[in-house]
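Hi there, hope your week has been kind to you so far. Please have a think about how the structure follows from the sequence. I've dropped the whole record in just underneath, so have a look:

_____
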Amino acid sequence: MKMPQTPAVARTLSTLQRTLEGLRKRKSTVALVPTMGALHDGHISLVRLAKRRADKVVVSIFVNPTQFAPHEDYGSYPRTWKADAVKLAAEGVDLIWNPDARLMYPEGFVTRIQVEGPATAGLEDRFRPHFFGGVATVVAKLLAQVRPDVAIFGEKDYQQLKVVTQMARDLNLGSRIVGAPIMRERDGLAMSSRNLYLTPDQRKAAPALHRSMKDVVRRLRQGEDFAATLAAGAKLIGDAGFKLDYLEARHAETLAPLTQIGGAPARLLAAATIGTTRLIDNMKI
């Protein structure tokens, strides 16, 4: 049985540029899949979509410190390099871009990207005000470094997807941003690297977030009272042991608040904490 070829690995800008020049021979198109590692089947679905959208696939693995607040889990965020490399080799990835923080943010680095629009919609930004500035800065750097034709982001981080799409368009970064559907466990829980933090009891309870959201979507589609339906969904999530940050129906493109369903594409978005693990999810209404 033929073993999968190990992807090339770049950890310096010179190696990255030299390897990309080789990949682009014969005018091959390039897709980038930005990740923070700890890869699961959701990430692999992004890689497979990237392979359908371009001739060559680059996966970045970089745990970005600027999107973590001091009290968040940067230090303990799962890092599983060997397992990640094996998974990417099995998928036929062409290059892994694995810079360290000193390369991405060298001494004297002072530039930050300020984002508004979907980044100030009052969802994740209300609870993590530092987050999207850090995301926008690192994604802009990754796009500038790799110069991909297309970059793939998962829809689980829906507000992030909208922020990155707007930024790439506004700054003429030359890469098309493509969203990939959420991958779920059999019980409905959205796949996330942070699911590793859940205790067995918390993991058993966690799918209640998705079930409650499905119930809200079903009721809204049936025309039930908007505010009452969201309140009932919030109660279900709380009764399952979650501390709810938000459960909101928003315009699917602008993320503007909605007061009723109908006449505009809509998305239900939620964030809630069980134990010490914060989970986010969303679904089309």
Summary: The chain has two domains: 8-180, 193-284.
